[in-house]
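Incident review: delayed structure delivery

Summary: a single-chain prediction request sat in the queue longer than the usual turnaround. Root cause was a stuck worker, restarted by the on-call engineer. No data loss occurred. The affected request and its eventual output are reproduced below so the record is complete for anyone auditing the incident later.

Affected input:
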Amino acid sequence: MVTTSVVNTYPLSSYTFGTKETKMEKDTSVADRLARMKVNYTKEGMRTSVEGILLVQEHNHPHILLLQIGNTFCKLPGGRLKPGENEIEGLKRKLSSKLAANSPGIQPNWQVGECVAIWWRPNFETIMYPYCPPHITKPKECKKLFVVHLSEREYFAVPKNLKLLAVPLFELYDNVQRYGPVISTIPQQLSRFQFNMIHP
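Output delivered after worker restart:
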């Protein structure tokens, strides 16, 4: 795990983007997702998920890589950990499944850094909080967001049904309507970092 207050960001043009086979979402709607979460909860207990904040730069401003499903919904790359799985290893596995080529020879060098946010889902509902409400003794999900330090050059393979967008921090800031509470508060969580804009 990398802990530093400086995040090196490289231009978006340093990275190569390709495609890979469609990676279907397990759920076609939010209701389906919550129903599946309920089933998994009875089997495994609280869902633990991890997501990566991958930073690049454009016009000397930090941008975050988001996966877009359809033309509306954006999410961070990541997902649910297996029971007992290490958070860092689990995030690397999830990042590879979402963004790495299927060839073992060209796996990105995922350098997972600090956990910058923890969100809690108290009930089987879409709403999440950056704290666990005091009256909730059995939250349904705990989601952790980690900064991922990208190397200067990487190849990302994006599933054909998803788009990978580089979204500037100023676009995310306070934009809950478009990005939801978790993603729209990332600029505040990153404000303690110093961004080192590297122009190779």
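Verification: The chain has a mean pLDDT of 91.
Action items: add queue-age alerting; document worker restart procedure.
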